[in-house]
Amino acid sequence: TDPEGKLIKVNQAYLRLYKFSNEDEILGKNQRIIRSSKTPPNVYKVMWKTILSGESWRGDLSNKATDGSEVFIHLTISPIYENSKLMGFMGFSLDRKQQVLLERQLLHANKLVILGTLGASLAHELNNPLTSILLETEYLRDLFDGKEKIIDTKAAAEAANSAIRGVDRMRRVLEHLLQYARKDSQLSTSTIRLKEMIEDSFLFMEKQLANRGIHIKLQLDSELFIIGNKTQLESVIHNLLTNSRDAFDGYQPSGKKLIKIHCYKSDEDMVTLEFRDNAGGIPKDHLDKIWDPFFTTKSEEKGTGLGLAISRKIIIEHNGSIYGESKGDTSTFYIRLPLSES
Hints:
By secondary structure, the protein is of the alpha+beta class. The chain is built from ten helices and ten strands. The protein has a five-stranded mixed β-sheet. A three-stranded antiparallel β-sheet has the order 1-2-3, sandwiched between helices. Helix 6 packs across helix 8. The protein starts with 11 loop residues before the first helix and ends with a strand.
């Protein structure tokens, strides 16, 4: 491209990838013509800032072909100089379509593994409101079948409201379960309220963690928004929660068992999510390995070693970063993601 980003030369592979019949359709135009709304604007902001500073930029993008189909690429852009003068930019793209398809299959398999380990917890989550609904409706039946002519309408209304709350809780859990288990046909993205997404992540695990004596502390800003795939990002939280839950097995900290999640705006256009537990920490020689596929210290029935590897891939595809540290019995994971307007 020229220094302004207008295309001056493309090869045949570029034309085939984006389904252009010839160069005349694209030359002289800005690459906004292939830009997809599924790539957040912040990505392009960082891209331009990097290449205008004289450095190369690398990253995964979602673009669109002329027929509207998605095109997944890994892009490298480098500035070209002649006698210290910026002449333009050179872009090199790798088609990631097959890789993305395989990653989605792996992600879906990981979600099913998580749901499999939560089976008992889900049954408990539904059984509690069912018990409440049964008791309240039995009370209402007996109230209206009774011989007394005077009915305590306040108590009856409260019983009815309690039953409605129980039904609503079950509906919410089941809707979320179906949405989470559904295999994504495409990388659907939306604007997500971070606080709401994290709270929803506990729908399947809240009772299970409580039954193990694990306390949860949430410090969430209600006005932080991101753009992304909700079920994928929830999978990241589920993987971290599952790892913490399993790490607490056989380990009792000096104080109470605690998982703390803190979200805050870390700079102008980024949000940071801190996930911390006191489940014994991570050995130093494991910190560099935890992101490797199939690395696990769990038994076969408890883990596949794919959770953190998949989580890291998801965060990178959302143009963010994730890393972990361990001090004493405390482990902390930091997730950074681009902010979005509400």
